[in-house]
Amino acid sequence: MLKFRDEYAQIIASQLQKNQDKLRKQFKLEGKINSCYLDSLLDENDVREIYTAFPPKQEMLLLKDLREYKYVGIQIDKYHPTLSEIIYAFQDPKVVNIVSEITGFTELFADEYLYAGGFSLMDNGCFLNPHLDNSHDKDRDKYRVLNLLYYVTPNWQEEYGGNLEIWDGGLKQPCRTIHSKFNRLVIMATNTKSLHSVSKINHQGQRCCVSNYYFSNQPVENHEYFHVTSFRGRPEQKLRDFILLGDAMLRNGIRKVFKYGIKKSHYYRK
Length: 270
Prior knowledge:
Layout: H1 5-18, H2 20-27, E1 35-38, H3 44-53, E2 61-64, E3 68-73, H4 81-89, H5 93-103, E4 108-110, E5 118-122, E6 127-132, E7 143-151, E8 164-166, E9 176-178, E10 184-189, E11 196-198, E12 207-216, E13 230-231, H6 238-257
Antiparallel strand pairs: 1-10, 2-3, 3-5, 3-6, 4-12, 5-12, 6-11, 6-13, 7-10, 7-12, 8-9, 8-11
Helix pairs in contact: 1-4, 1-5, 2-5
């Protein structure tokens, strides 16, 4: 049975409110890239319906190169309405406000255009190399400050891969892994140091995720900055790292000349 976004939002806000002290402490652990997660966010039957609403990968946009391999859905009016309801539930002011209280980030704005958000599907062989998220919204007016990832694949085991990896000490130190567990919401800060990745999937199944970004007029750090989504090679991928560093420098250079870049942006066109 289809739930509407205000119903989802009420439950999400309530769950975050009940767990806010634990989440606040987890988010601000010293020496870690700011992040926290909450399990059992929604009723399991509702989450299974969200998972079932995901379209076949053939109906999604394939992103595949040295940087990443995944399928994304951004033009959400083409897909099952359940997906738009859950995505926009995370943009309800009740949810945004409690996330602000948990993280300490003020003046948060949700993104109705889902710039680089939406939903993603990853199956056997898919991966996401270490990277920094794009620093701004599609119009370069606001800073991207938070990434909300909601995992909806039933019975997804940690050994399958497809888990979030957070590189607290950079690529010279081991990463911290957060299992992309069914019905788990992860909240992570995005800034000039929040290097993260997704481990390669080694399982015949699909790991599905609902993604939202929050923005602010103020940067997370105490200075202004701008960068495109910038990828790196993994520690053992020396040649790939060299290539991806050059790729990031080139794309950053292009954006200094062309504010909106020369490639069609990944956002919801209403």
